[in-house]
Amino acid sequence: MKWPNGAQCAAILTYDLDAELMWYNSYPHTPGYIARGQYGAFVGTPRILTLMEKYKIPATFFVPGANAEKYPDLIKQMHDEGHEVAHHGYLHEYVSKLEEKEEREMLQKGMDAIEKVIGKKPEGYRSPAADFSENSLALFEEFGFLYDSSMMKDDFNPYPLTDYNPDSRIVEIPFSWDLDDAPYFQFLFKPYRGGLAAPTRVFEIWSAEFNAAYEQGGVFTLCMHPQIIGRAHRMQLLEDLIQFIRGYPDVWFTTCVDAAKACRSVWDQQS
């Protein structure tokens, strides 16, 4: 991929601000789970914004519409500090289980909620379930999304989402569970998932993945959640990773939307 200004690799730090909604579809609506989600809004996200400001790195925050309504000042702060605010459903719904009418409604409500807070429509989307329905791609075209970041058909190379429409120009910024903090760190009682991995183990994996992305001239897209990565010792992991990446020449720290625009520009030149 030919990145702007001669960059060898694009690096994108993304955060899914699920807050309480992370737990609503599968876990009890009890004070313990609610507090875990609130931690992401009240502690994790401010720590993340401080770290991004320290290194002058723009990030992409995927925000469910209901959280834009609940935490408007926080979402506006993200936008005002130069970060991208993108679409992450409305209630962190399981998209693959929705009928077309329901999915369209969730997309519209999520888009309206974000636009009301930041004054512009989100240009990109990440599925809350890392999955689509058979109607999703047509709806993305209808809603005018520039990109999606939910699929795993490639690792470091963005590609057009042509599965249902061979003429689609929607850019897929690849997602991967390998580059997601939840599988490594998130502790669950039921179904039991150990989580709580040592940051040193995760640094070893993520740094190796970045090295591969750099060698291929691709995009390194890290998916994190403020209630998970926002713990103090994991924030140190993230800062160590940022410093590691900054040690490579010609790395472009960017947002999903700007990476997607760069891809579109290259594809247009090739067509």
Under CATH, the homologous superfamily reads: Glycoside hydrolase/deacetylase
In N-to-C order, the SSE pattern is EHHEHHEHEHEEEHHEHHEH
Distance linking N and C termini: 15 Å
Q: What would you say the CATH architecture is?
A: Alpha-Beta Barrel
Q: How many domains in all?
A: 1
Globular, elongated, flat, extended or rod-shaped: what is the shape?
globular
Number of helices: 11
Structural category: alpha/beta
Average pLDDT taken over every residue: 94
Number of strands: 9
Which residues sit in consecutive blocks of at least 5 with pLDDT less than 50?
none
Spatial extent as radius of gyration: 18 Å
User: What oligomeric state do these chains adopt?
Assistant: single chain
In CATH terms, what is the fold-level topology? TIM Barrel
Identify the CATH class. Alpha Beta
Helical percentage: 40-55%
- Please give the largest β-sheet: 5 strands, parallel
Percentage of residues in DSSP E strands: 5-15%
